[in-house]
Amino acid sequence: MTFKTEHYVINIGPQHPSTHGVFRLRLTLDGEVIVDVEPIFGYLHRGMEKLAEGRNYTKNIPLTDRLDYLASMINNQGYCMAVEDLLKIEVPERAQYIRVIMAELQRIGAHLAGIGFFLNDIGAFMTPLLYMFREREKIVELFDMVCGQRLNYNYMRFGGVAMDLPDEFLPALKKLLNELPGFINEYDQLITTNEIVLVRSKGVGILPREMAVNTSAAGPVLRGSGVKWDLRKNRPYSIYDRFEFDIPVGEHGDTYDRYLVRMEEMRQSVRILKQAAAQIPEGEYMGKVSKLIRPPAGETYTAVEGAKGELGFYIIADGSENPYRWHVRAPSLINLTALREMLIGWKVADLMAIFGSIDIVMGEVDR
């Protein structure tokens, strides 16, 4: 016997614990099967890109902290590099090493949060998340040591960083780097072969390689689909060409592969950090930069490899103290482009696993 059913529409979000902020999904369902999806953003109304045009270049550094607020150090780095390109500023070598150390610590911290919240989304209530926040807390303590902040750091400056590393920083960093591989292996044993994780993520929410490229996906979402693309390797910036590390990629482009890529990227970040901590030279932490930042008329697009993918800043300068235009290529927004195609055909129960595997922060989606 066949039953005639009618499609019906439900809303998930914008106030929902697993929508990672004010994100709304309007689902058309046939029973529990998703037949259509309309993602709806726009609840934050931050207007950050317009606000930046009314502030001078230096005062816009704190705005970058509020983009992906789980990766503020990398946001600082990308924006400062864009303005440095306009000003043709040379950054001292010690400052370059400090920036790389901060960026890679931030990448590990962001992936710890991303994996922890993803597991929470699929029902592993709190345990893996709290394990991962244990190590994230140690990274936050290092950030607190250098700039006095634990979330929005506002640490980097045009030409370098705001303050040099305190004497106790490198010993604390090296101690953490000796501990992290063991902790990452602990997460691996807890999660990677867990039968519930395998059933909820393996073969679920496949993003084919071609679609990942065509939708401009970036970061672990792109690499999970088998595309070996990482700006630190493919278009090296700062001093990344001095370090040995690998680019992990997935095979199937499913939810499980995106998890595996983030797990392996933490190991690669530890490799980079160990090399940077061993190589960091003495010297200036700040280059010679005028207190009045007024780039000549021109434009730039400068991108770094953020925790969630390519984070780019497009700036048009008109010779004044404020940018004429200020635009952010935010990976969280771009990675949502393929969400509809990833969800159609799956059940409502699979939705949060697939959505969580993209790892978005709404601060850089609705900016």
TrEMBL record:
InterPro entries: NADH_Q_OxRdtase_suD, NADH_UbQ_OxRdtase_49kDa_CS, NDH1_su_D/H, NiFe-Hase_large. It is found in: Cell membrane. It catalyses: a quinone + NADH + 5 H(+)(in) = a quinol + NAD(+) + 4 H(+)(out). Keywords: Cell membrane, Membrane, NAD, Oxidoreductase, Quinone, Translocase, Transport, Ubiquinone. Residues 121-295 form the NADH-quinone oxidoreductase subunit D domain. NDH-1 is composed of 14 different subunits. Subunits NuoB, C, D, E, F, and G constitute the peripheral sector of the complex. NDH-1 shuttles electrons from NADH, via FMN and iron-sulfur (Fe-S) centers, to quinones in the respiratory chain. The immediate electron acceptor for the enzyme in this species is believed to be ubiquinone. Couples the redox reaction to proton translocation (for every two electrons transferred, four hydrogen ions are translocated across the cytoplasmic membrane), and thus conserves the redox energy in a proton gradient. This is NADH-quinone oxidoreductase subunit D. The lineage of its organism: Bacteria, Bacillati, Chloroflexota, Dehalococcoidia, Dehalococcoidales.
